[in-house]
Amino acid sequence: MNIAALIVAAGRGTRAGLTDNRPKQYVKIANQTVLEHTLDCFLNHPEIKTVQVVVHADDFDLYREATQNIKKNNLLPPVAGGATRQASVYAGLRALRETNGIQGVLIHDAARPFVDEPTLDRVIKVLRLGKAAIAAEQLADTLKRGDADNFISETVPRNGLWRAQTPQAFPFDEIYQAHEKAVEHAKTDFTDDAAVAEWAKIPVQLVAGGHDNQKITTAEDLQRAAQRMSTTMTNPDIQRELRVGNGFDVHRFEDGDHVWLAGLKIPHTRALKGHSDADVGLHVLTDAILGAIGDGDIGTHFPPSDPQWLGMASEVFLKDAVRRVSERGGQITNIDLTLICEEPKIGPHREAMRSRLAEILGISVDRVSVKATTTEGLGFTGRKEGIAAMATASVMLPI
Ligand code: MG
Predict the structure, then answer these.
(1) What's the CA gap between 341 and 20, in Å, rounded?
(2) What is the 288 CA–ligand 1 centroid distance (Å)?
(3) CB-proximal residues (5 Å) to ion ligand 1
(4) End-to-end CA distance of the chain
(5) What is the pLDDT of residues 98-113, one digit of tens each?
(6) What is the pLDDT averaged over residues 5-26?
(7) For residue 296, how far is its CA from the centre of ligand 1 (angstroms)?
(8) Taking the model in full, what pTM does it have?
């Protein structure tokens, strides 16, 4: 059977919250873009003859850059998608129609880089019988329906409920005609191809997808994906080394009623003065991580002279440092933050700070330490003129 894969990479995906607004499929995790990780699985599958990617019309340069190292002649030149996912798939199907003889197609989201060969095998097995199939996961959680005030109105039986994933596999002519007919009937709100098929009365079989085959949507998803990709890459061929960096910073008090510290807004009789939100804890952590990977400091990447960082939440800076680690295939091992001040008291906020930092860094809480000290009334911190902070970060980086 002549089977093609259609990879949908036309979304803007800026919900991932990245500072340079790069769509998530073009963000690097573990030394490769999300799109490359996704393409690997399809380009190397023995039963897939052709791979077609649909990109956003503005992203041809990003695509070229992301795929320059792929030396596979079964990857067709990219085509531009449309305004919706449905329109993009239809554009891809039209392009594939130019390649003669395609009998089956697997349609897959570029933002699902953890798709694996066994999942492709399962959908292809159904496709070979001339039927449509989608990868999906049976729901394991108990489902509750909430009312307008978020009180439970009922428990929904989970029997027979599945979470749809991709790839979704179809006999080529059937799905092409279903999309064509949907356009003719001005039906443009289908969120996946199985829904188009369902509307066109094409039976679709559910097959087990991998539990890891999740879609990357948020910045947290992206960090988790990078961590997972690094651990799946615990490949003896990749040697890693331990890197350590430190950071130090001071911010002065000014009039105000709260401070931002280690990602938390804490009521106080003063505020910290700074160009951003002046979160001295996040600034030193950013510098410690950048120090560990030898990639400048917070001021190199976010110059205070640049008005776009005015009043910025400092977690943007820290997340950017985390992204730089992920891009190089690295992993943050632990961080240790010390806040130096007489006031506010840190103790009551310590656990909340650890949780918040673990969330921003995409690591477990046991890898996050927050400590506090005073300077016994000595110096500028002793005179309550400001807050100082220092941090150490360790990172495992491929050599
Ligand atoms: Mg600072």
Answers:
(1) 34
(2) 12
(3) 249, 283
(4) 43
(5) 988 999 999 999 999 9
(6) 77
(7) 14
(8) 0.65
